[in-house]
Amino acid sequence: MTHSPVLSCQAAIEQRRAARSFRPDPIPEDLLREILRLGLRAPSGYNLQPWRFILLRAAANKAKLRACAFDQRQVTEVPVVLICCGDRRVNSGDYIESVIALGEQVNAMTDAFADYMRSAIPQLFEQHPCFESQEAWTNRHTMLAVAHLMIAAKSLGVDSCPMEGFVSAQVKAEFAIPAEVDVCCLLPLGYAADPMKTYGGRFEIDQVCYGERFGDPF
């Protein structure tokens, strides 16, 4: 089941805040699935989609995660919290073939492009010209999906709080996360309790956007 947005995309971006406290109200299953569906429409290089999300709803598991996250209350207040991960194994031959097969299923893959992917993707991860480590690459793409999830959630009336306050090794041990998978952030999803966090402001466009080269006026 799909839902008409409670907010427009522009309004969702304007009104989104990192909620610091949540009500215990559950998120309807179909609404949660729609948030996930929209979030997974995020872009990724070669359509490799390296993001992986562990959904925690059981109180005992959220309590375990809270113990790994410096006892931050949002983790156990929300009905759902996502452990957002990046999988470095997406450069394997079998995985590349699965992405090619996906493209073929939706008539978006030619034989020529499939051959190009088989050649180019291993070279990308061997030479990594635009990133220092594969973890940096997978985190980059995972955060694109996390941003999509937060905007999709807000447009449907659900609040969120991206969190990087956690001990990665503890999270991986508690939730059987493989060594090749990195924990990028935590994302509580639910309904914010009043008062909502006050907007902290943003720097002006001219302060952070440059024209033609770094430092030149926009």
Notable characteristics:
218 residues, five-stranded antiparallel sheet, single chain, 5 strands, NADH Oxidase, 9 helices, alpha+beta
Structural class of the secondary elements? alpha+beta
Categorize the overall geometry: globular
Terminal-residue CA separation: 44 Å
Instruction: Give me the CATH fold name.
Output: NADH Oxidase
Named at the architecture level, the CATH assignment is 3-Layer(aba) Sandwich
How many beta-strand elements?
A: 5
Number of domains: 1
Helix content: 40-55%
Order of helices and strands: HEHEHHEHHHEHEH
CATH superfamily: NADH Oxidase
Regarding CATH, which class? Alpha Beta
Q: What percentage of the residues does DSSP assign to strands (E)?
A: 5-15%
Round the Cα radius of gyration to an integer and report it.
Answer: 19 Å
Determine the number of helices (DSSP H or I, runs of at least 4 residues).
9
What's the mean pLDDT score?
A: 95
Mind summarizing the main beta sheet? 5 strands, antiparallel
List segments where confidence is low: pLDDT < 50 over at least 5 consecutive residues: none
Q: Overview of this structure, please?
A:
The mean pLDDT is 95. The protein starts with 8 loop residues before the first helix and ends in a 10-residue tail after the last helix. The longest helix is centred in the middle third of the chain and has 22 residues, at 134-155. It has a single domain (9-86, 134-208), classed as NADH Oxidase (3-Layer(aba) Sandwich), CATH 3.40.109. With 218 residues, it is of the alpha+beta class. The protein has helices spanning 9-15, 29-39, 59-68, 74-77, 93-105, 111-127, 134-155, 168-174, 205-208; strands at residues 22-23, 51-56, 80-87, 159-160, 181-192. Strands 1, 2, 3, 4 and 5 form a five-stranded antiparallel beta sheet that branches. Helices cover 44% and strands 14% of the residues.
